[in-house]
Design brief:
Pfam families: AAA_14, DUF4143. Residues 197-359 form the DUF4143 domain. One of its GO terms (molecular function) is ATP binding. This protein is an alpha/beta fold. The protein folds into 2 domains: 6-141, Rossmann fold (3-Layer(aba) Sandwich); 145-417, no CATH class. It is 43% helix and 22% strand. The chain has 16 helices and 13 strands. It has helices spanning 6-15, 32-46, 70-80, 100-108, 122-131, 147-153, 158-168, 172-176, 180-203, 208-220, 228-239, 245-257, 286-292, 300-314, 364-375, 405-410, and strands spanning 21-25, 54-58, 87-92, 113-119, 137-141, 261-268, 273-283, 318-329, 335-348, 351-358, 382-387, 394-395, 401-404. An 8-stranded mixed beta sheet has the order 7-6-8-9-10-11-13-12. Helix 3 links the parallel strand 2 and strand 3 (87-92). Helix 7 (158-168) packs across helix 13 (286-292), helix 9 (180-203) packs across helix 13 (286-292) and helix 11 (228-239) crosses helix 12 (245-257). The longest helix has 24 residues, at 180-203. The radius of gyration is 23 Å and the shape is globular.
Length: 417
């Protein structure tokens, strides 16, 4: 089964021969190597590049252990270049090489090589793009399969695919398993033996129980605002453990640097400023989140919200959580301050969208709850509500766009309706 990753492949095609180092980042097992060594290599060959002008090195393989030495790796690449024609270097999991920045900078000075590297840790890559490559590094972030990519290879109808995706997520290997038990065991196994192990070893964490418990807490509160102080208090009250705010904050950063989670900042829409007190945390793959909780905590609203958040990131939007301050009269006639929430404030260039995600909007009370925050935003940017199901988009009498999850996920330009 070959899963197409057309949007990422197109990004590589556009950047081909642009004189910069193409750096493909993302969580481990999300398909970076497949994109580079299978899909992009196939494109190069079909474009007329000779096989011996494609240099492939997978640094996470034991067969290439010697090439983790930066000098040996550089010499190997130079020796593979036999003429003045263009060569294409595909270098996988570059963070396994110490001083990899020096190797890449040296390669930039060679005129007939085009360099593509992958990495699974933003601390190793994103910061170095700025400080080491000085505008010569070009980052492409890839994610686990979007629902549209997943659905394209799923053997079944939308409802079955949606249920499967909400439970097991979009890691490419999971899609290839036909038995549910295989999917569940795979997700639980790689969480502990790949992701957590990577974070612990890379950051030299001494107390593994702490970060394991932190992951469990974050998995339990997706879609809910929280902060290190709240989490620290939870440890003290429920477990009798002293887990400091600073350590929790550092550990959250480590999880984000490994692309396991993303942080959504809170944005005061009327005040036009960020509010740093609480953030929301979402998992880069909902299947990993569910596996962490042993598939017990299946709240469809929060899972939908996490999936929508990831989809917006995949489409290249900047995504925050919105808050709207309002004053309402109480039953006694007094002014009462309330803070309403908009699930997502979505920006791209000069465009902005306000999005609510609702599993169910059948009752009047639920409609009031979901729409009230949108009603209190005075600007003219588009306001949308994404609901569970297959409804095609329509506008209500207030001008808000209501659309089903199916339309949103399967139409890349769905926000433009």
């Amino acid at each position: 089964m070959e899963i197409k990753r057309d949007s990422y492949l197109e990004q590589l095609k556009i950047r081909k021969d642009n004189g910069m180092i193409k750096i493909i980042t993302g969580i481990r097992r999300c398909g970076k190597s497949f994109l580079l060594f299978v899909l992009f290599k196939k494109y190069l060959l079909e474009s007329g590049v000779d096989h011996d002008h494609i240099i492939e090195i997978a640094l996470d393989g034991i067969e290439n252990e010697e090439l983790r030495d930066p000098k040996k790796c550089y010499r190997y690449i130079k020796d593979a270049m036999k003429d003045e024609q263009k060569y294409y270097l595909l270098l996988d999991e570059v963070q396994f090489m110490p001083r990899f920045e020096e190797v890449l900078n040296s390669l930039l000075r060679i005129g007939n090589i085009d360099v593509y590297v992958t990495g699974s840790n933003s601390k190793f890559l994103s910061s170095d793009i700025v400080t080491e490559f000085r505008g010569r590094g070009d980052e492409i972030r890839i994610y686990p399969l979007s629902f549209a990519e997943f659905y394209a290879v799923f053997d079944g109808d939308f409802d079955d695919a949606w249920e499967e995706y909400m439970i097991y997520g979009g890691l490419p290997q999971v899609v290839k398993f036909s038995v549910e038990r295989q999917k569940a065991e795979y997700l639980k196994n790689i969480f502990n033996n790949v992701y957590i192990k990577d974070v612990v070893e890379r950051n030299r964490i001494q107390n593994v129980d702490e970060i394991n418990t932190l992951v469990d807490i974050l998995a339990s509160v997706i879609g809910a605002p929280t902060n290190p102080t709240k989490i620290s208090n939870t440890f003290k009250s429920e477990r009798g453990l002293n887990y400091s705010n600073k350590t929790i904050s550092n550990h959250i950063d480590y999880l984000a640097e490994a692309f396991l989670i993303s942080k959504a900042e809170r944005y005061d829409i009327k005040g036009r400023k960020y509010v740093g007190a609480n953030r929301k945390y979402y998992f880069s793959d909902i299947g990993l989140r569910n596996a962490r909780l042993n598939f017990r905590q299946q709240e469809p609203t929060h899972i939908m919200e996490n999936i929508v958040y990831n989809e917006l990131l995949i489409r290249g939007y900047n995504v925050d959580v919105g808050i709207v301050d309002v004053f309402e009269k109480s039953s006694e006639g007094k002014k009462v301050h309330k803070q309403l929430e908009v699930d997502f404030v979505v920006n791209q260039g000069s465009q902005r969208y306000y999005i609510q995600v609702a599993y169910d909007m059948t009752s009047e009370e639920k409609q009031m709850q979901e729409l009230n925050s949108l009603r209190n935003i005075s600007d003219s940017f588009k306001k949308l509500v994404i609901v569970n199901g297959t409804k095609k988009p329509w506008r209500n009498e207030e001008g808000f766009v209501i659309m089903g999850m199916k339309y949103f996920l399967l139409n890349a330009d769905s926000l433009e309706f």
